[in-house]
Amino acid sequence: MGSQRLALKNSARFLVNKIYRYPVLITFVISIAVMAGCAFIIAIEEDISLFDALLRVLAFFLGELGTIEGDSLVRIATAVGLISGVVFIAIIGAKIVTLFVNLSTKGGRIMKKVSYKDHIIICGWNNQGKNIIKQLLSPDIKQKRPIVILANLDKRPIDEDRVDFISGDPTKKADLEKAGIMTANTAIILTNMSSGLQKDINPDAQALLMTLAVETARPEVYTCVQLVNSEYREHLEHVNVDEYISFDHLGSNLMVASALNHGLSRILNGLLTFDVGSEIYKVETPDAFVNKEFRKVAKELIDKKMTLLAVETAESNLDSVWKEELAAVRMLKDGKAWIVNPQKDYTLHKGDGLYIIAEKEPTKNEMPRS
């Protein structure tokens, strides 16, 4: 029932955003549909042709222009009244057209505030934003969350009716609250890498300020941050950011790994791109896998065309040797631990998260139950 209600809300949001993006076209279509519907009703009730009924509707719409009757004074007064009515309609129409033009110039509706829960907020904007949203809206992802962009822009940065946009400053708590930070699930913080950025403005420093504002407003929200320079990661760790992607560190490591293992970048690109081949998904450990060894679970998942890659568990589930190994490669944080392809036996616990490779996100029914 909850998923149906969410789907209905998303459909309504999509329709409203569509109207705001194409107001003139949709208004025209609705007007034609209303006129045609009225003409159809009149044709049936009056037993006349649809053409005659349409002419009658047009006469009503135009105020019965051309049927001025009476003596001279009455005809002059009627004509003046009709002209005044036309002028009035023209003024109202001009106001509406101005509104429509402004909406079209801005690329669609700009929200003043949203009232979503468990949604994703994208703070800031860069040229990677469109691809990020495309991946988030992929049909392969079963759990769709509302997406809100909060950026200091005058117009919508993307033509996507399933995404809402708020023009504001992601470093200000008031604007973050307008974007629903107090009820959001995740905040994605994008680094401004625009070529037109002033030389004295550090994009990573801006990302750090946005992160600080988000974490201060609501520490519980899960934060993912882009960085150009990995030197800033220590500052992010001080503000308890959950995840960060540093282009220099990740890019250099990938270059070396691809040079030593030819074709690796193509494999990773396929795994990280939705709608194409297999992707990496995180699922909760089913009861059927609790207290089973990692390698045995991996064998069972192979039969279901899934590959077990890693596991997320509570740090308290690990002995001192595990903790020491994971701490060396920064795989421990906030009481959680991540184990990739363990070389010694690891027994799964209830509540562990499994990272698997599959063609689509598996549902609970598709995972083993016993």
Give an overview in words:
Strand 4 (186-189), helix 7 and strand 5 (222-227) form a beta-alpha-beta unit. Helix 2 crosses helix 3 (50-61). The protein has helices at residues 2-21, 23-46, 50-61, 72-105, 129-136, 173-178, 203-217, 233-238, 247-260, 264-271, 294-302, 320-328, and strands at residues 120-123, 147-151, 163-167, 186-189, 222-227, 243-246, 279-284, 307-314, 332-333, 336-340, 353-358. Helices cover 45% and strands 15% of the residues. The protein folds into three domains: 20-105, no CATH class; 120-252, Rossmann fold, CATH 3.40.50; 278-366, Alpha-Beta Plaits (2-Layer Sandwich). The strands form two sheets. Strands 3-2-1-4-5-6 form a six-stranded parallel sheet. A five-stranded antiparallel sheet has the order 7-11-8-10-9.
Summarize the model shown.
With 370 residues, this protein is an alpha/beta fold. Helix content is 45%, strand content 15%.
What sort of overall outline do the alpha carbons produce when their principal axes are compared?
A: globular
Distance between the termini: 27 Å
CATH architecture type of the largest domain? 3-Layer(aba) Sandwich
CATH homologous superfamily of the largest domain - what is it? NAD(P)-binding Rossmann-like Domain
Q: How many domain modules?
A: 3
**What is the count of helical runs?**
12
Specify Rg, calculated over alpha carbons. 29 Å
Beta-strand residue fraction: 5-15%
The CATH class of the largest domain is Alpha Beta
Tell me the major beta sheet.
6 strands, parallel
Order of helices and strands: HHHHEHEEHEHEHEHHEHEHEEE
Uncertain residue segments: 65-71, 77-85
CATH topology annotation of the largest domain: Rossmann fold
